[in-house]
């Protein structure tokens, strides 16, 4: 519906492993933000990419990293997975970083760490 | 203190009822505010932006009180389909658009 697609939709990883989540932004959108939503919590801002550069980061450790490609799709990488990393990971895209640019969320990737 | 605080509920109301959700935010410099709706195991979807002058969209009315750092959402004539979690959101001042601070959400359950 929003034109933002994420993959995979569900995955299970073991503690200590690494995971890569992917996001294709809506056509024409050059800005991608990533959020983590733990059960019973609101989404928490991880970081944002604008035109392939990181443009802001939330309170997440360095083992959370990302990148944005020339087509503005994006990846979120998490190393050394911990049980508390189990969450819904949401990608949101927008056509710019200024206020007034509506952001659109993808359906998310459900990560379970066991 | 949490940056955006809201009553988690749940609010259990009958169809046709009027229900109000409140939210407070801590960053007085925040400029933009929103209400998002999130259905169970789905992504958040923008319900409406919140302006100081107040804004209305059908059965939904949002209000912002900057002096009190308080945001509200009023839902009139509740429908079964309004059952969801409602997230209060402030744009992080100094951050870029898309750097949003979400509350934990208020769960609404509308019963027949």
Write up this protein.
- The complex is a heterodimer of chains A (114) and B (112).
- Helices cover 0% and strands 50% of the residues of chain A.
- Chain A contains no helices and 11 strands.
- Chain A has strands spanning 5-7, 10-13, 19-24, 31-37, 44-50, 53-57, 64-68, 74-78, 87-94, 104-105, 109-113.
- The N and C termini of chain A lie far apart (32 Å).
- In chain A, 36% of the residues are buried.
- The model of chain A has no long low-confidence stretch (mean pLDDT 93).
- With 112 residues, chain B is mainly beta.
- In chain B, 0% of the residues lie in helices and 52% in strands.
- The model of chain B has no long low-confidence stretch (mean pLDDT 90).
- Classes of the chains: A mainly beta (114), B mainly beta (112).
- The A-B interface holds A 2, 31, 33, 35, 40-45, 48, 50, 55-56, 58, 88, 90, 92, 94, 96-103, 105-108 and B 4, 31-32, 41-46, 87, 91-92, 95-105.
